[in-house]
Specification:
single chain; mainly alpha; Four Helix Bundle (Hemerythrin (Met), subunit A); two-stranded antiparallel ribbon; 2 strands; MST-like; Mini-circle protein; DinB/YfiT-like
Length: 178
């Protein structure tokens, strides 16, 4: 779980983008280190967010963008009626299960991005009021968006974790490094 992406570590633009996404994923993964399932699914503030729910949301969001880029159906597609469920562990879902699912999605994202002919290749955005009509985005945009989305929620995770047991991101980096 990287915390910093050294300039020489990525090799090229694809590698850099993949490494920056992975660094942000690490922030979210570290947020649940050493927690019980009860703690990972707790909501210690007035927000509806939990650490397990954030991990589920980010994993499903990454899968959604990946499926759009691949122009394949998304088996976990959400709509307005069930969007809230992307932030909650439901039924027999667990934080560990969501982390494993996210690992699969991350590996598929990396394989796809490494094989795409060009980061300039585009794919269509779905019809939605917040997207331009008949809009398209590039693979580069996709990767930048994954950095943005994951980083936003990694910041939420820092606050939630500190609210649970007082551990800060720096302490969690130390814990992850043994």
């Amino acid at each position: 779980m990287p915390t910093h992406v050294p300039a020489e570590a990525h090799g090229d633009e694809r590698g850099a983008l993949l490494n920056f996404v992975e660094a942000q994923r690490g922030g979210l993964r570290r947020a649940v280190l050493g927690l019980t399932e009860e703690q990972a699914t707790s909501r210690p503030s007035t927000s509806e967010l939990s650490l397990g729910g954030l991990i589920k949301h980010v994993a499903e969001t990454e899968l959604n963008w990946l499926r759009m880029a691949q122009q394949r159906p998304n088996e976990k597609q959400r709509d307005q009626s069930n969007w809230h469920e992307s932030f909650q562990l439901m039924g027999d879902e667990t934080t560990a299960g969501m982390l494993a699912f996210w690992d699969e999605v991350a590996a598929e994202t990396e394989e796809f991005i490494r094989k795409v002919p060009s980061l300039d290749d585009t794919f269509p955005l779905p019809p939605a009021p917040w997207f331009p009509k008949e809009g398209r985005v590039s693979m580069r945009w996709l990767m930048m968006h994954l950095v943005e989305e994951t980083a936003r929620h990694a910041g939420h995770a820092d606050i939630i974790r500190e609210s649970i047991d007082g551990k800060t991101a720096f302490e969690l980096v130390d814990l992850a490094n043994g």
